[in-house]
Design brief:
globular; 218 residues; five-stranded mixed β-sheet; alpha+beta
């Protein structure tokens, strides 16, 4: 038995509930979640009455922790590995992947839904097939990305979505060229990650734009 934050039905308040996890299937792993960020996408799920997903919904997709159990055919991670849970992993076989554009993969690798509400046995829909606002989560092995022992788990979990979205925009989506000038409009978590990505890419001048004094200070 484990616990997770469940959004049970439209109009309800998300609540911590007991959940039951099936054993991980082929190429799936069970991760003991040690830290999870709260992304606005999870808030959006609640604000939009489910974002089109079947209820009940298990929230969370910015998780990091330790692999506890692996299913058949798993080769990339082992019990005890520290990992970040990625919400998307390319298949390596679709037309986008085979032409070297993996971020546009049309058949991303995901685990099957393995979590159930303990109260009634209902199959839960994990947000972005992660469901990391929980003690444990079942994910595809390709979504369990190993991290170093030195990286604090409360920082590692932000790599799962917020940081990779912002830094990825500067490094891959619209690549910043070395020596260029970059303006970043809006300096919340994702915006600050864009700033860092632009710096990593070698931008000569980075202008951070915001109306909130605390964000500008950060």
């Amino acid at each position: 038995m484990t616990r997770g934050v469940v959004y049970a039905e439209p109009g309800s308040a998300p609540a911590v509930e007991e959940i039951v996890l099936d054993a991980p299937g082929p190429r799936e792993v069970q991760v003991r979640i040690q830290a999870c960020g709260l992304c606005h996408s999870d808030v959006h799920v609640v604000e939009t009455d489910g974002w089109g997903m079947p209820f009940p919904i298990l929230l969370g997709h910015e998780g990091a922790g330790v692999v506890e159990e692996v299913g058949p055919e798993v080769t990339s991670v082992a019990p005890g590995d520290r990992v970040v849970v990625a919400w998307r992993a390319p298949c390596g076989k679709c037309p986008s992947c085979t032409r070297g554009d993996a971020r546009r993969c049309s058949s991303q690798l995901r685990a099957k839904r393995r979590a159930h509400r303990a109260a009634d046995g209902a199959l839960l829909t994990p947000v972005l097939r992660c469901g990391t606002l929980a003690d444990r989560a079942i994910v595809h092995e390709a979504c369990a990305v190993k991290i170093s022992a030195e990286l604090p788990v409360e920082q590692a979990c932000l790599l799962a979505c917020g940081f990779s979205t912002g830094a990825g925009a500067a490094l891959w989506t619209t690549p910043v060229r070395a020596g260029s000038s970059v303006a970043v409009i809006g300096c919340g978590g994702v915006g600050l990650a864009v700033v860092q990505g632009a710096q990593l890419a070698g931008a000569e001048r980075i202008v951070a734009v915001d109306v909130a004094a605390e964000k500008l200070e950060a």
